[in-house]
Amino acid sequence: MSATARQWLDDIRALKLPPEKFRIMNVCGGHERSITMAGLRGALPANIELIPGPGCPVCVCPEEDIYESIQIALNEDITLVAFGDMLRVPVNVGKNEIRTLEQAKAAGADIRPVASPTEPVQLARDNPDTAVVFFATGFETTTAPVAAMLAQGVPDNLYVLLSGRLTWPAVAMLLESEQAGFQALVAPGHVATVMGGNEWKFIVEKYHMPAAIAGFSAESLLAAIYSTLRQIIENKPFLDNCYPELVRPEGNQTAQTHMHRVLDVVDANWRGVGIIPDSGFALNDTVRKHDARMRFPAYADNARRRAGQMPPGCDCARVVLGRIYPNECRLYGKACTPRNPVGPCMVSDEGACRIWWAGGVRDSAA
After folding, report:
1. What CATH number labels 59-167+251-304?
2. What pLDDT score does 1 carry?
């Protein structure tokens, strides 16, 4: 990727684009952060729209999983650990009830943020008489290290409350719908690093849609945008790898081996979206003794398992699906801000609403 961002912008502007809109979805929350912070939307021709997609794992983590983690932490003599963003994601309960893990911590539960799977392992080893529950959320790039942790062996007192998701089924669901709303796809580089670039071939082979895998620099993202635009103009869709430094066709075979060894792929609920077939991970029989749902079965609440789990008035689900821009949410910048988030998209650093706010968009367009 020797060309500079300026050169890629010049190449994009030199394309003979028709006047109609070109809508390109960038799946990854990390991509959305790079696009917004680099000001790429303002630098591109006005008829090129970059649509944030479903690439925020915190945003799609189902409400029942968050609620379950809160209840385990409040009612059991355990230490619960989770990735930092998850501590502030609210669930739908009454005003006087505990809505987040952060509030549960303030109420006396032993809840701690972690940054990697090595931390809960060490915590469990240092406290052998305490059950440690690791609320493990995320897409393939986060789930792969969790799988490696389990495959390599963990202390008997460590349990995993897994809420892992696969990225590509959500994109496939959008393309199967009547409102896909985009003409090309920028696929997530980190996911492709783990699972392989070939995983995204279905975009071209089944849906005949231009696609490119991108990294997180402005140069890589602009290269991917340029590639998809040329594919649209020439009507020759293919999967382009604009992140060759790390992405290989077959991906990280060691990571995939660990995942296959300890995890099953299952139908899974996505917050505000519903059940997507074969889009989630679950611990398999080889590591079942470390499954927090088996150890603490009383806290699963299937009554909370519904498609519309976003708070009243919150449009996070439509943002996640690329139906609206973040500032088109009815609550954006009004009831919902990073200091007082209503929906998960305003909590996570990979949430489009939080990213747009950090990028200076303060006014609601709703």
Report:
1. 3.40.50.11740
2. 47
